[in-house]
Amino acid sequence: MTNSIGLDLHLDPGLPKQTEYRHFSKELLRKKVGRDKELTPYTSVDSKYRINPDLLAVYDFKKEPLLGKYQSVLIDRERGIILSKRGSKAHFYYFLKHKLISGLAFQKAIDQRLHYRRYHVISTEKRAYFSIHGYTDGCTDWVALHLMDDYQLSGSHAIKFSALKINDLDYSFTFDNCSRHIRSELTEGLRHNNLVFKVLQYHLEDTMGWSIYRLRGKEKSLLDKQEYFTPAPTIAFFTMQEVCADLKRQKYLWYGQTMAEYFQLNFLERDHQLIFHLSQRGDNIY
After folding, report:
1. How do residues 228-278 score in pLDDT, each as one tens digit?
2. Angle at 201 between CA 58 and CA 246, to 5 degrees
3. How many CA atoms lie within 13 A of 49 on its CB side?
4. Helix and strand tally (H, E) in the chain?
5. pTM reported for the whole predicted model
6. Residue 197 near residue 190, CB atoms below 8 Å
7. CB within 8 A of 4, min separation 6: which ones?
8. For helices 103-113 and 240-262, what crossing angle results, to 10°?
9. Backbone angles phi, psi at 141, to 5 degrees
């Protein structure tokens, strides 16, 4: 059985075990994928791939498609090397729209409260995906911080991540053309995820009375290693309820602006805010 590029199709083959194929980079993928027969058992095509906990990294090739047609390569610890005709932005779109609480709005609300200028990380507390070039810039490379053990800078414009051991083997992922501020951007990303956990913890434990804890495996990932970042302080007013209320107000503001534009009316924010306030039910049990 072969796939669309004539490669043998193996279900969930895992990652290649040969030493020379355990250190991923765009250069290696360009030179080896579709050309080196040793990678054939580990390579497949799936343009409908969905972001999941086993995703290790995404290399975006939209500007120069791999083999002339593949816009991204996704590295999955169970499924191996996956070629896709869709760019990284398209793959993350479904995740952001259907799997992430409040989509990007919640993520950006935390960034803004922390006074971050760029958006680099998508945090879920148990998982965090770091965008090498900032996800608002369009298509970009990604790395799953919850599956990474360490990282090191290589020169001034490259970063190399070492993954948690997979079947007792070491794997690494190198990304080139990084910002010269990549270290501080990564630190901010780790702090962002830490704060997402604190928001959930504060809301569920203090507001709802439910106990939660962070699940950890035998090995700690970058998300758990506080020596790589200074944890953001627990801010009493920074609860899930506060953030969601802000998002709700913003949503109705966008709605009012859209309606005013549609009917070619002047948008009066003061009147809009009054109507929004009057439409809200009091926070009581009656």
Report:
1. 988 766 555 555 566 667 767 777 777 788 878 878 878 777 776 777 666
2. 80
3. 31
4. 6, 11
5. 0.80
6. no
7. 45
8. 120
9. -80, 155
